[in-house]
């Protein structure tokens, strides 16, 4: 497992981390299997784990807490997120800060997450949504500074609305933001335009989420699929969107060398970008953990292949959380 420095915080983290959304809120998850997968990832060298209070209303944090309670020599870095108080995804500029991240909500959510995970302090606390309409409001900055000063958090980050990588540039300029979490994959290459250069300049770590486009770039989506009521994937993969997505996946496969699998290409494309600190595939089963983490040792893709994959960039026009 390869490691990279987490921006100006200078933490060493595995370049492939672990996203815990699926085990907290997706159908088909098994708690014992999820915990076994977390343990296996640590055995294989994974040291960065990303969860959120909103994932199953704290369930994924509680599952992670059961793993963190076990003594171990390896230093693990834990990230979580504060949900918007109004529970609306994505954030919009016409939402007042008091509706989304008032100071008491920031503190209460952080304290709840710490209790869920059995921690006194968490490495990284993040806002789960964002709009730069709030960037100049000093109240959220003071609330974050208070959490840092009291030792409840060590770093602060922002999880950016899907497909809106430019919506955090003003916040980064304040100097308060230590990391950003953004959708970045073979289809979603927009963060390379403005976000990554600013992060590089400011020493802000980049967490690349949704490396498999919620499953399409892992080969896990088929035409006509649907999920139980309440599963978020029914919103993301409507019948029309499935067909459009899989047409693009099939075109992408034609550009891959025969020996390179689709999920391996997806992860290694992200790792080929030096601006990315870590990427966080969702994993709920041990075989997925073992297959994904090996991509770290395989390393970046060749420059000619990267250039070939760039033509699969997809600028999406519809909005989902």
Short summary:
The chain is α/β, with parallel strands linked by helices and 321 residues long. The chain is built from 13 helices and ten strands.
Strand arrangement, largest sheet?
Answer: 3-4-5-6-7-8-9-10
End-to-end Cα distance, whole Å, is 31 Å
The class by helix and strand makeup works out as: alpha/beta
The largest sheet, given as strand count, sense and whether it forms a barrel, is: 8 strands, parallel
CATH C-level category: Alpha Beta
The fraction of residues in strands falls at 5-15%
Indicate the overall shape.
globular
The CATH fourth-level homologous superfamily: NADP-dependent oxidoreductase domain
pLDDT < 50 stretches: none
CATH-derived topology: TIM Barrel
Would you count the extended β strands for me? 10
* Topology as a string of helices (H) and strands (E): EEEHHEHEHHEHEHEHEHHHEHH
Number of domains: 1
Rg for CA atoms: 19 Å
Helix content: 25-40%
Question: How many individual helices?
Answer: 13
> Which CATH architecture?
Alpha-Beta Barrel
Mean of all residue-level pLDDT scores? 95
Key words describing this protein structure:
eight-stranded parallel sheet, 321 residues, 38% helix, single chain, TIM Barrel, 10 strands, alpha/beta, two-stranded antiparallel ribbon
Characterise the protein shown here.
This protein is 38% helix and 13% strand. With 321 residues, it is α/β, with parallel strands linked by helices. It has a single domain (3-312), classed as NADP-dependent oxidoreductase domain (TIM Barrel, Alpha-Beta Barrel). The strands form 2 sheets. Strands 3-4-5-6-7-8-9-10 form an 8-stranded parallel β-sheet, covered by helices on one side. Strands 1-2 form a two-stranded antiparallel ribbon. Helix 7 (169-173) links the parallel strand 7 (153-159) and strand 8. The two termini are 31 Å apart.
